[in-house]
Task: inverse folding
């Protein structure tokens, strides 16, 4: 696999809800950018509707959400549902944060492709995105 | 026992370091090189091989240390420190509904905890009600959900407020939550003069690090100075601002940045209160601090000792406070949540122990020790108890509380304390040049520095340059599972229904009048606290009161975040 794909993969890194913990989101966004992806960071306090609107407007290939608020079981499914309604269901959704192990199967069942928990290295995230987020057919 | 060679000590001092390097160190290094080229603290501050008298040349113990309970308070703020009274063991707790948290409070008090500390949920922290669309999924998750005085009454049910001290971690809506606490005291028949406790009320670090804001900086500071003025005359034992470095560190700052930005925030608050016409010696003794205690033991000890020294100078020399009580930096410490690992979570007990020990050696006034499962979820009853027991073992078994400031005079600790002080002054001066902390925040200076430090640290972990046991070294295939606390799905609808109930049953006329009055006061320079208190008594919700203030003050929006 070539390190620089012909078409740059575009990613949206987002913070949804009232949670202000943005250390992880900013580190991941920067690591992905340094790894050659095009990265848009939403900033704080986004609603699921705002994230989906930005994702479609910016024509991204993947959405990475950082959640440390405990609201993951509400927010991830909502975003996936909105993406489905707006013909964005081929956008790869992944995430990370304070997410208990036992919630992960449910999230994956709902369509979240990967969940990174505390201790995951930026390299793991970058490698996973490289392997699992292809450019969308436009 | 007498040393065998009586003359040896004097030979060692006169011979000097250079000779030791030639005759002993160099051959030693030849045989056995050091483990790495450079040794640094967790914050990447370089650490020398050896500290000796030469590192403290011209160092005057009278000026740099003084005695405990005397300026510059390096050795601690009380003459007897923990020989007189142990630090307050104050475990932060809050989840689910007010009933759930009230039960946990009773549990902690029954197990020997000496003060309460309330964690609120995100909607409350952001000044939003449980039925706000933005609150969906977050009610009662990270702390207790409080909408109206009715919730607060349940939260403190069976807890006489004249017999406990209560710390409340609340910032943007702090004035509202404090007003609710005062109203509960009134209902219990406790006079406001008797109340002891703290509201965090530190909005500046929200813009810098934790990002739970409502209004822009100027009106936020006005609310804070109003509350300080109100408490100074009416609730004299209340700690009005807990100036917090904890969250700055959690956001990824270095120890020195945590120290400097926190003290700079403190300078900002004192300046605002002085500008509002308050007498510095009237309010300054009720300001307190809140620092993080991370993994690097000596760096943390040095940070706390340096903090007291810098603050003493700030209050005495910059603000010309006359009372020594104004010069004292009293602090709470919490062990570093961000240092805990999801991998092999039992190891976190050991991390917390070392961090707590550093806080005690640094002379803290109160301490929260994190539970081993906090990187996974909120603590269970069992993990919360182990965290409390950790403090009790340090206090009652280790012997470290037997003497005041036991590390004083160590070449290393004193050199590092001086270094931390120097670093703090350098950053404070830089912020002064920007026109103070508010312009510095508006220019994104602290935010940028912290993000930079956080990224560097993550890269050091990813590359293995910095070791995290169980994460990038000594890893195990299978993660040890910890049982985690579950917040029931019924909490959110239950809380929403409860709020609806209150909305329907309260005295509508009194409620409307109180909010109207609040809006009028907000448009003047009159103190906001009495109007907020009246609104709270009329069972106005946190969201309603904050919405009224937002309609006058506007909402804060973060500027573009550069990665």
Result:
């Amino acid at each position: 696999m070539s390190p620089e794909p012909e078409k740059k993969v575009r990613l949206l890194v987002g913070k949804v809800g009232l949670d202000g913990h943005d250390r992880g989101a900013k580190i991941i966004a920067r690591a992905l950018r340094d790894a050659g992806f095009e990265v848009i960071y939403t900033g704080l306090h986004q609603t699921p509707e705002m994230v989906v609107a930005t994702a479609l407007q910016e024509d991204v290939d993947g959405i990475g959400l950082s959640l440390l608020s405990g609201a993951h079981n509400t927010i991830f499914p909502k975003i996936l549902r909105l993406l489905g309604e707006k013909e964005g269901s081929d956008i790869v959704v992944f995430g990370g944060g304070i997410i208990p192990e036992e919630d992960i199967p449910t999230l994956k069942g709902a369509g979240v492709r990967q969940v990174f928990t505390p201790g995951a290295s930026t390299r793991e995230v970058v490698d996973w995105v490289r392997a699992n987020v292809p450019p969308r057919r436009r | 026992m007498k040393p065998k060679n009586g003359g040896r000590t004097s030979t060692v001092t006169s011979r000097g370091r250079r000779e030791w390097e030639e005759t002993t160190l160099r051959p030693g290094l030849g045989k056995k090189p050091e483990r790495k080229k450079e040794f640094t603290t967790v914050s990447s501050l370089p650490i020398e091989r050896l500290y000796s008298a030469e590192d403290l040349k011209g160092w005057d113990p009278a000026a740099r240390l003084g005695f405990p309970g005397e300026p510059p308070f390096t050795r601690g703020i009380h003459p007897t420190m923990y020989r007189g009274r142990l630090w307050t063991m104050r475990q932060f707790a809050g989840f689910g509904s007010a009933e759930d948290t009230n039960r946990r409070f009773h549990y902690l008090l029954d197990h020997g905890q000496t003060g309460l500390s309330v964690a609120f949920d995100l909607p409350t922290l952001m000044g939003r009600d449980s039925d706000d669309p933005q609150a969906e999924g977050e009610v009662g998750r990270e702390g207790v959900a409080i909408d109206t005085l009715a919730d607060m009454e349940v939260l403190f049910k069976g807890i006489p407020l004249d017999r406990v001290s209560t710390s409340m971690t609340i910032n943007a809506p702090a004035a509202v939550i404090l007003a609710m606490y005062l109203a509960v005291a009134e209902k219990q028949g406790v006079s406001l003069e008797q109340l002891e406790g703290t509201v965090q009320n530190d909005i500046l670090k929200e813009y810098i690090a934790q990002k739970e804001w409502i209004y822009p900086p100027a009106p936020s500071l006005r609310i804070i100075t109003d509350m300080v003025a109100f408490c100074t005359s009416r609730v004299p034992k209340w700690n009005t601002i807990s100036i917090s470095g904890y969250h700055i560190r959690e956001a990824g700052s270095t120890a020195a940045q945590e120290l400097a930005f926190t003290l700079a925030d403190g300078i900002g608050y004192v300046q605002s209160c002085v500008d509002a016409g308050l007498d510095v010696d009237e309010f300054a003794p009720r300001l307190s601090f809140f620092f993080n205690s991370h993994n690097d033991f000596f760096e943390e000890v040095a940070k706390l000792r340096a903090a007291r020294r810098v603050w003493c100078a700030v209050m005495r020399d910059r603000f010309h406070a006359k009372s020594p009580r104004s010069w004292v930096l009293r602090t709470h410490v919490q062990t570093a949540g961000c240092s805990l690992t999801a991998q092999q979570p039992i190891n976190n007990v050991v991390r917390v122990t070392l961090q707590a020990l550093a806080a005690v050696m640094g002379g803290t006034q109160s301490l929260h020790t994190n539970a081993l499962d906090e990187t996974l979820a909120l603590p269970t009853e069992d993990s919360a108890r182990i965290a409390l027991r950790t403090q009790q073992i340090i206090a009652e078994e280790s012997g470290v509380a037997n003497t005041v400031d036991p590390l004083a005079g160590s070449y290393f600790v004193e050199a590092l304390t001086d270094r931390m002080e120097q670093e703090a002054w350098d950053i404070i001066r830089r912020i002064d040049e920007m026109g103070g902390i508010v312009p510095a925040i508006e220019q994104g200076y602290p935010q940028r520095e912290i993000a930079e430090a956080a990224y560097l640290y993550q890269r050091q972990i990813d590359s293995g340059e910095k070791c995290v046991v169980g994460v990038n070294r000594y890893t195990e295939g299978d993660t040890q599972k910890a049982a985690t606390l579950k917040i029931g799905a019924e909490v959110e609808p239950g809380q929403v229904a409860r709020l609806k109930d209150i909305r329907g049953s309260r005295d509508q006329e009194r409620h409307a009048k109180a909010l109207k009055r609040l809006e009028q006061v907000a448009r003047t320079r009159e103190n906001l606290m009495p109007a907020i208190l009246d609104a709270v008594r009329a069972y106005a919700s946190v969201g309603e009161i904050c919405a009224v203030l937002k309609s006058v003050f506007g909402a804060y929006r973060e500027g573009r975040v550069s990665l």
Summary: The longest strand of chain B covers residues 287-293.
